[in-house]
Predict the 3D structure of the following.
Amino acid sequence: QTDKMDKFTYSIFKFSTENQLIQNNDQVLISLSGGIDSMSLYLLLNDFKEKIDIKLHLVHFHHGLRDESDDEVDFLKELAEKHNTPITVIKTNQFKNKKGMQNLARNWRYENLERIHSELKFDKIATAHQLDDLIETQIWRILRGGSLFTLNAIQLHRPPYIRPLLQISKAELKNYLENRNQTWCEDASNFEDNYTRNKIRNQIIPLLKETSGGNFEEKFLALNEDAVDLKENFNQIIAPKTYESNELSFIAIQALNPIFARELIYRFLLHHDQTEITRANINDIYKMVLQNLGNWKIQLKRNNVVYGKSKKITIITKLTRGTL
C-alpha cells in the first residue's frame, strides 16, 4: 500500500476525520447505487485505508424497475471483487406501479441498511448525499414554508449515518471519477425524484446560480451552518424530555424567544407522530399559549386534535378507522 493520497481524496479524508465521521477501526456500511455520488463515496473511503484501518461493506438495492438493473449488479459485483470489498445485493419487485413509490422505496432502503448494519454489528452507514442534494433540499424546504431550523436540511452525522461528501458538489465528484478513469452507472436514482425536485434542479438552481453574483454554493452552505448553530443552541437550552413527554406546559413555551418557542411546539407535535404540520398550525398554537387561554382545541390533519387545558398542551390521536 502506498501512503500517497491525491489532494482531493486527502481533503475529504481530513474533513471526515476532523468531523469524526470516520475514525480508525471503523466498520462502515456503504449504500452503493453505482451512480456518480455513491461510486465516488466508495472509492474515496476505500482509499482512506492508506491512512487508517477501516472495514467496508457495500449494499446495493435492485428495485426491479429498469431493464439495465441486472447489468449494473454484475458491474458493481466485479468492482467490489476488484477491491476486495464484500457486497450485499437486495432485490425486490414490490414497487412496480406503486403510488408514492419514491417514499416507499426510500423507506425500504433505510430499513434494510439499518437491518444489515445491526446484523453485521457495524459502526456506521455512509450515504452519498452531496452539496447539490443539500441545496436542493434547502430550496424545497423554503418553498414548503420551513423554519430557519429546516435549512440544516441534511445532517452530516446522525448516528448511525455519516455523509462525508455533503460539502462536495456533483461536478467535483464527476471530475474525480473521470480523472480516475472510473465509469459509473447513469443515475439510477432518477426514478426517485418527484416533479418539484426536478424543477428545482433543472430550472430554479441554474437561474439562482446565474443571478447569485458568484459563490452560490458557499452561500447555501453558510445558511446550513447557521441552522446547525441554531439547533445546537436550542439543544443546549431545551432537554429532549421537554417535548418527549405527554404534555407540554405553556410556561416552557412562554420562556423562549419566538423562534425557539415555535421549534419546541413543532418538536412536540413531531414526537407525537404528527408528520403533516403546517406553519399555520404552529402559529395558532403559539398564539393561544401566549394569550394564556384556557380550554381550546386546534384540528390537525388526519383527524388529530391539539388541546390546551390547565396551561398544558396535549394531543389526542383519533385512531378510529373509516373516519378519514
Q: What stands out?
A: The first strand starts at residue 27 and ends at 31. Strands lie at 27-31, 55-62, 87-91, 124-126, 157-158, 161-162, 248-249, 296-299, 305-309, 312-316. Residues 320-324 have pLDDT under 50 and may be disordered.
